[in-house]
Structure formats: C-alpha cells, structure tokens
Write a structure and sequence with these properties.
about 150 residues; alpha+beta; Fusion Protein Consisting Of Minor Coat Protein, Glycine Rich Linker, Tola, And A His Tag, Chain: A, Domain 2; 3 helices
C-alpha cells in the first residue's frame, strides 16, 4: 500500500518524527563510539506509533466545532509529561483567526491527561507533539492530523 507524501508527513509530524521547521541534520561524527545509535530502533518507533494512536484517539474524543463556525487550518505544538499532563500548548502556525487558534488549543488541553509517553521520547522532561488541525466551513467535525 502506498501512502501519499502529504499524509506521511502529517503522520510524521503528529508522531514528532518530523519537525515543521525541519533543519538539515549534521552528518554523524566519524569518531562515534562503536555500538552507539543515532536514531531510534524499529521497536522504539513502533512503541511511539502505538502511543501516538492513543493520543490521537483522545484528541478525536475531545474535538468539537468552534463556536463561531470559523474555518481554517493551524499547527499546534504541545508537551506531554511522563504522567500524561499536557502543558506548553503553542500555536506554531496560526489560522489567522485568534479565536479559532484558541479553540484548537482548548481542545488539546481538554483532551488530557494522555497515556504516558515512551521513556525514550522524553527530552527535557516532556514529549513534544506537533498537531495539524483543519476546521472546515461546514458543520463537520475538525480534522485532526490533517496535512497543512
């Protein structure tokens, strides 16, 4: 099965495996110690994807229409602590409508607490998640994880 590039990027963003402001990574140093791995194992990625499915399910449960029926798309970033608490909800890319951005941030806050993130995903005491959201101009529920 082939996954469209936009959908794959959205999934990688949602899982924190890609950054919306991705920068070129420096090549690995040639003097790296033997046995050191620069990237997560396949099992690590599978655990993170399973965790992200739980996060996604919670987000789907908390989604709701904006009060003013506004339409737009935005990108949020938020932190999930080892105990599942949500903090640091930030609008990375605005929809251009402050009330819509605030509504999306409120949806994420109300979805918590989440399942504890896998230990290797925690950096600086939290796991960071990037979440694209699209609000449609009709009475449909917002699309969570939609490519921007």
């Amino acid at each position: 099965m082939t996954v469209p590039a936009a959908r794959l990027l959205a999934l990688l963003l949602l899982c924190g495996l890609a950054s919306p402001t991705a920068q070129a990574q420096a090549p690995a140093p040639t003097n790296a110690r033997p046995g050191a791995t620069a990237s997560p194992t396949t099992a690590d990625v599978a655990k993170k994807l399973a965790w992200m499915r739980l996060v996604y399910a919670r987000l789907l449960q908390s989604r709701r229409l904006p009060p003013n029926e506004a339409a737009g798309q935005l990108l949020l970033s938020f932190e999930i602590h080892p105990d599942g608490r949500v903090t640091g909800v930030v609008v990375v890319k605005s929809s251009g409508d402050k009330s819509l951005d605030a509504h999306a941030a409120s949806m994420v806050r109300s979805a918590g607490p989440f399942a504890p993130p896998p230990a290797w995903t925690i950096r600086g005491g939290v796991a960071r998640v990037y979440l694209p959201i699209r609000f449609l101009p009709t009475q449909q529920q917002p699309t969570i994880g939609a490519p921007l």
